[in-house]
Every structure is written in structure tokens, then in C-alpha cells.
Amino acid sequence: MSIRAVDEAPLNKFHRKLTWACAGGPFLDGYLLSIIGVALVGMSGELHLTTGDESLIGAAALVGIFVGGLFFGAVTDKLGREAMYTIDLAVLVGVSVLSVFATEAWQLVVLRFVLGIAIGADYPIATSLLAEWVPNRHRGRLLGILILAWYVGAAAAYTIGYVMAEIGGHGTWRWMLASGAVLSALILMMRIGTPESPLWLVSKGRTADAQKAIERAIGRTVSIEDLLAASAAEQAVEQSRFRDLFQGVYLRRTLFCGLFYMCQITPMFALYTFGPTILGSFGLSEGNGSNLGSALISVVFVLGCIPALRMVDRVGRRPVMVWSFALMVIPLAVLGGGNALPVAVVILCFCAYALFSGGPTVLEWTYPNELFPTGIRATAGGVATSISRIGAAAGTYLLPVSLDRLGIGPTMLIGAGITLVGLLVSVAWAEETRGLTLAEASAMPGRSRSAAAGGDRRDDLRESGAERS
């Protein structure tokens, strides 16, 4: 079972506000990670950047995300979702402001690395908070909206970058980076005052605080007995430590979440970071025209997420995941034809890949939050993010090198191969969690629903909770 008052509550103003506030982080992530691709054109000439410098600047944020996800997911499980929820946004504001004044390549590398740490921290923070507040029947769709916000942010970055470059030329790259500080400050204000997750509060024995949070957010009163029962269902003492992510069935789930995530975003991040360069390699106009092309492709990524948002709660997680990966391989394989392909075919393939990628995209944060219990939920999300960024950082760093040495065709075929690995991982390990409560979805295979609903630990937790409260 779960906290019935939360799980069965109708969607209300609180849920909508929380969704938008949580989505603000991924929106910023998409914006900040994509605006650098537009700004690189201008800063490269002004700061005399080499190809190696550009690769380091492009990959630094992804390395930071690896560190941020790995470390701050565990911190979030220990300290709570609410405090970390605003701190990471404050860091984004500060780093974006400092980036405006950078005069050396190494300064941008360091600032982008710190920015990546804050982004990596936000992924498990915002997604676990939303997953633990929203009703069960809407969980897949609302978590999917968060990743949809990422693509909206990326499209906004290319659009704003295009407009700035049209008005002031590529010398406006500092203003492009400054725009991230303004957006970060606005979303930070949206997040102030968000209540803590009741499941996390109960897991720490703070049942009275959980009662107050639920009553304040959705206007319902829940007894301490119900809260203790929910805690017994959500977690097990023996599965609440970092090392448990790498043991037994949780090892398989950790590998699944990290690997499918990595195989989905490795080609995607390379496309976003060096979108204008890639389109130029196919014979499309480089410069600001290719920025507009990247913006249009970003819009198609958004459109691809929309049907997937509906299907994950209606058709199921597993079929959406498997079929999407299978279809994503095709356009990347066609792009292996290189610059001999007609421009229309190139655009069609990029758009097809963007549309088909909606399935794995909207499940990037759904699966980690459903397959692990409350005590390690944010930790699992952070580890999955970190695993994914190993490939994303390597792909972003190596893409310019691959374009120079291998050419655009072989580079696209490598992307197709990575996507094929994602398909194989999904076929082998993707579980179906549609319609399950968080307790049922995160339970060990073979455990009965009654065991997932609390088992023998309920009396122990009731006694412990009574002592603490």
C-alpha cells in the first residue's frame, strides 16, 4: 500500500504548481546545456578556442552532472528533498552570472563543471519529490512532463540564441549565458515554500510533520497508523543503503536504469551540444541558420514526447520503451549515408529520431523513481543519472574528433549502434510498473502484495514511530 490520501487524491492546484516548479529544473537543464552550443560559435573566435577547448567546454557540464547525481542523490535521501530543492537552483544562478565574465577557456570549463554538479543534483531531487506527492494513476505522465520540460528548455535556448545572434551577431554570446541566470532566478522563486515529501518524513520517523505537510498540501488528514503502514510498505531496513543499489535485484535495476538512460542520451546530447556543427556537416548552412534548424528539431523532440506521455500510463512502460528504441535505430542508420544524402532525407531522419525518442525520454526519471524504495529512491535516480553521463560526456567530447577523423556517416552509425544496445537492455530488463503503487513497483520480485504492503515490519515501525513522534 501507500499513503492512500496522497495516492488517491484528485489532481489539484498543489499538484499542478508542484509539477511546474519541479519541471523548472529540467527546463533550466535543457536550456543551460543547449545554449552553450549556440554560444560556442561566438566565444570560439573571441577567446581563440581550439577544438580541444570546445570539447572540454561541451563535456564539462556532463562530467559535473555525473558527480552531482552520484553524490547529491544520496545527500537528498539523508537530508530531505525540500532543502536541496532550492539550494541547487541558487548555485545555477551564481554560476550563470560568473560565466558572463569568463575570459579564458579554463574558466568556462570550471564554471560549466560546477553548473553540471547543480544540474545533476536537481535530477534526483525534483523527480523523487514529485513522484512521492502525485497520485498513482497520474505518476507516469507527470514525471514524463519533467523531461518534456527539458526539451522545451533546449528549444528555447536555440530560439533565443538565434534571435540574439540575428540582432547582435555572435558577439552576444555573453548575453546568451546571462539569460540563464535570469531564468534560474525566476524558477528559484517558484520553488520557495514547497512542502517536504511525506514519505521521506515518515521514513525518518517524523510522522507529525508528514501529517501537517499532507493537510497543508491537499487538505486531507491522515492518521499516524496509516503513515506507519505506508512507511512499512515503502521501504525495508535491509534495502536502504547506498551499497544495496549494487546487490541482488537492485543491481540489475540500477544497471537497467543507467544503461538505457545512457544509450538514449549519448547520441542526443551530442546532437544538442553540436547541433549546428552536425547540420553543417550534412551540407546545411552553418552559422545562425543551423541554429534555427536545431531549434526546429528541438521542437520535434517535444512533439515526440507528447504521445509517449499518454501511452506510458495507458499502454505500459515496457512496450513504449522497447518499441521506441527499435524505431530510433532506423533514422540514425540511414544517416550513416553521410553528406551524400539529400537535405530533405537528413531533416526527415533527424525529425524521425526526435519523434521516436519520446518513449525512453519520458521514462528516464519514471523508472528510477518506481523501481527503488523511499530510502534509496533519490540515490538510485542520482546513480542512474551518473551512469548515463559517462556515455554522454564521452560522446560529447569525442563527437568533434569523430567528425574530423571519421566523417559524419560513420559517426551517425556509431550513434545507431549505441541505440541498439539500449534496445537490447530494454528487451532483457525493462519491467512493467504501470498501475502499481510505489511500494508495489519497488518491491523485490517474488514478494507478495501483502509483503509489499508492510509485512512483519509494521509493528516495529509503529513502535519506533511512536517513540520518535
Automatic annotation (TrEMBL):
Compositionally biased spans, kind Basic and acidic residues: 455-469
InterPro entries, per database record: MFS_dom, MFS_sugar_transport-like, MFS_Sugar_Transporters, MFS_trans_sf, Sugar_transporter_CS
Keyword field: Membrane, Transmembrane, Transmembrane helix
Residue stretches making up the Major facilitator superfamily (MFS) profile domain: 18-434
Record keyword Membrane present: yes
Record has Membrane as a keyword: yes
Family that this chain belongs to: Belongs to the major facilitator superfamily. Sugar transporter (TC 2.A.1.1) family.
Highest taxon of the lineage: Bacteria
Compartment list: Cell membrane
Protein's organism: Streptomyces camelliae
Name of the protein in question: MFS transporter
Residue segments, region Disordered: 443-469
Pfam hit, one: Sugar_tr
